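Notes continue from the previous slide.

Worked example: a multi-chain complex. Inputs as given:
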Amino acid sequence: MAEHDLTARRAVERIAREDHGRLLSLLAARTGDLSAAEDAISDAFVQALAAWPNSGVPANPEGWIFTVARNRLRDRFRSAAERTSVPLDNDDIARVDADETDFDAIPDKRLALLFTCAHPAIDPAVRTPLMLQTVLGLDAGRIAAAYAIPGPSMAQRLVRAKRRIRDARIPFRVPERSEMPARLSAVLEAVYGAYAIDWHGISGTSVRESLTAEALYLAELLAELLPDEPETLGLAALLLLSLSRSPARVGRGGEWVALDDQDPSLWDAAMIERGERYLLRAHGLGAIGRFQLEAAIQSVHCARAKTGITDWSALRTLHEALLRIAPTFGAEVALAAVIGETDGPDAGLAALDALRTAGVERFQPAWATRAHLLAAASRFAEAETAYEKAVSLTTDAQTRAWLAERAAEAARRG
Amino acid sequence: MRYALLLNNPEPSDVGITEEDMEPARAAFDEYAKSLEAAGVLVSVDILQPVAVSTTLTLRNGSLQIQDGPFADTKEKLNGVFVLELPDLDAALAWAEKCPAAQYGVIEIRPSALFFADGRWQSTT
């Protein structure tokens, strides 16, 4: 009996982990009520844990859960309908024996769910958490930990967003061709957001439970569901190529290692290969975009593992293209750094001086780049000052230590 | 230069947040304070008890008046003060941005004018 209990529990846990997004998107698609669908899934899990130890795990456990949850939802709306005498939805799937539902034959609605989560009427700040919860089944506490905020604050934001989806009747559907570019870009941003949490958050990222694995899962899922959209492939490539270098980012003593100083033999070759495959497929579709360009930049850096050198002129072309289609402050500074490599430090400094964007004087990457270029130009006293300014703008201990060391080195040589 | 980061936010109990719920934020604050200390910029920090525990005193009306509760009853409350030693406002903004309370509250960055140490008042510049 105990053994049957365990088997049943494992089966339920596996479905909760792997099939949450598929179940939820199917169950919520009709009414738009994500919370009700989540409750129905939980009820079905409870029922499975009661029934399966005796009856055995059914041949198609996902289908069983789906059917039980759907019946549960239907009962709920029927009783609501009796109270308010609103006509019932005409359901095309008849109430069948739970064991006979072939889950794999039911179409996948997760893509529609992703578009709902990133709908223009949903606050951009809650889109990423909403995807993590509805598609991956992450609980609010786990998401809150990643964002380093109290659990109920996150739960409240999620509940509010779900209520909005239901009450405003935000539809569960994949946009048509004409509206696709704008709508897709919101979905891509939200998926990228799950990856970017780690990079702009609280100092000392160790406190946050990293969600990079979840971000990668979402990006690859999106690439699988929309295989003909070059930017979905570009995003998957970008995440894989960036994450491939994680093992080399921290040295033996826990210190931060700059990209150019990393040992390429520590990079994850399998991830690089997977990323390159996505990038190649994206390229074949013949429409360039921000994520593909960012992925291509990562790809040039990763190529050092094979060639031993960094192709700076290729990087320059890519950075210039990126700046044209997605101008950001970070991209401007990155281009100045690349110009410092291709045309010498003075040219890089001139490019930095030309930046007029508001806030440049307190933008840490601009100061770190300036310091690096000044040192390369043998202007050590100025380099030291710039490094010190960069240190003062840096909160992460490892990066501070690295910059302070460069400042000391500039002082020695000056 | 000294800067005070004044943490203003609704009190957790006012918005239905329990002690246990604060755990992720507490871990983040722990890491934040350690980062400040490692960077050598932390002068002091106090996280305050709820205003319900406040007592207010004044003699400005001629006699001693002591009463329960805060001086000003506002929706957002002062809940903590970090005092940091930093070169300039840019650095203060960089640290304020990483403060966990910025995720759910508002941080007022206020330069300090004077502080008392070694038997005398000193300017912070």
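Summary box: The interface with chain B takes residues 141, 144-145, 147-153, 201-204, 206-208, 361-362, 364, 388-389, 392-397, 400 of chain A (CB under 8 Å). The longest helix of chain A spans residues 61-84.
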